[in-house]
Amino acid sequence: MKALKRFAKRFKRRRPKPSQTKPQVVDAEPNQPLPLLAPTAQVVPESTSLPPSTDTYGAFSRLPTEIRRQILTYAFGERTVHIDLSWRHPLVRRSAPVSGAGPQGASKKHCGLGEQLVEDNTLPKRWQWFSCVCHRSAETENPTRIAFFKLETTIWPFEDKCLEGEYCDCGGSDRPGQGQEDCFLGVIGWLLACRGAYSDGVDVLFSTNTFYLSSVPLLLNMRRLISPNGVDKIKSVQLALGEPRLTRFAKDPLVHGLWKGTDKEEKACAFPQVCSTVPNLFSNVRRLELYVQSQLWPSRDVPVDQRVPLLVRNVMDPLEDMVRSLGADKQVVIAVTLEAHKALMQKHGELEGAAFRWEPEAGADDSIERYGRFWRALGSDDNGNEVGYWLRTGWNDHDMVNHPYMTYCFGSGGSIFDLWGYYKREAALGRSQYGSNVTFED
């Protein structure tokens, strides 16, 4: 008995203690300004000897302002630039593996992401900055890797995967993996040269490039993290916000609580805040593209005949208030998911009649005939200028819930999820694209 007790004591001492590591909590708001372009950035220390403020920088100062601007624009302007801030493990560089690499061991992926530039899972997550030039390919040979049952080869802006290093054309298809130096702007060295270089460089950087943002936390905190002087110079923006690949019951922070949620969920919903933030944030923007990536699937508890009015009230009304705040001299394109776009197109087409303006999207596959956009006129401003925007098709959520080969090839029998009552209405008007034996489910 004593031997058994001694064995039990030794076993108890050897048992590993439960882990004291607590799960890492995500910071509510990013608090890490973008280095060098932070609101309070000191480009050159005050103690450094500087030329008089009237002097410019070296031989470059002898060139006319227009020539200097053309040179800098060629160097790092007039591109589409991804700028991202996300909660993730820090990115680190490692040597490219010999196998699977291109000539001279170069990475085949955009920016080397996933091969030379990888997340270090041994380090705790944090708010991570990342920026690169957009090298999205025009087409892909394997469309199903982008979206489930994707039928056409075109890669639309809302399907961009540059931040994952995929579906990109870096330096030409005949030189895979080459030209990776073009994946980054390389502007930091110039901005650090002197105050004159910084001033000219920031102006070209922000005023000539199109900025592609997909981070809602970055968008909502942009003026705290990036110099307001630079943000005010932005003239072209692409926003791809939301989570397109989530399942029907997953929680997308952008729109969760938008349809039917608790008071706390409705308050936490970021969509209304995004719509009210954009006009004040990009006060001098000339072109804005906003892709609502979220699956706008209504609650099953909402009757079908009330879903489109709720879509208009909860989604389109805030977006249209945003367009009105931007003003009449802006080019605005808004995209929503395919099924929501169809329902809105049907609604406005019947209301506007002959005045309804619809056109196919450039580059769309004629065999599919479902990518297009229509004009939404919102009246006039105080000077009589027309205010409006183009509403175009975004993510194909139809094929996420309906098998395309059944609905497009056979067209008879089976059922189709009719989230907005669109297909029932089309059938009632004699415009159904499906056979008479197809049933529509809510």
UniProtKB/TrEMBL annotation:
One protein family per Pfam: DUF7730
Region (Disordered): 1-32
Biased composition (Basic residues): 1-17
Signal peptide region: none
Domain DUF7730 positions: 180-247
Cited PANTHER family: 2EXR DOMAIN-CONTAINING PROTEIN-RELATED
Protein name: DUF7730 domain-containing protein
Source organism (scientific name): Emericellopsis atlantica
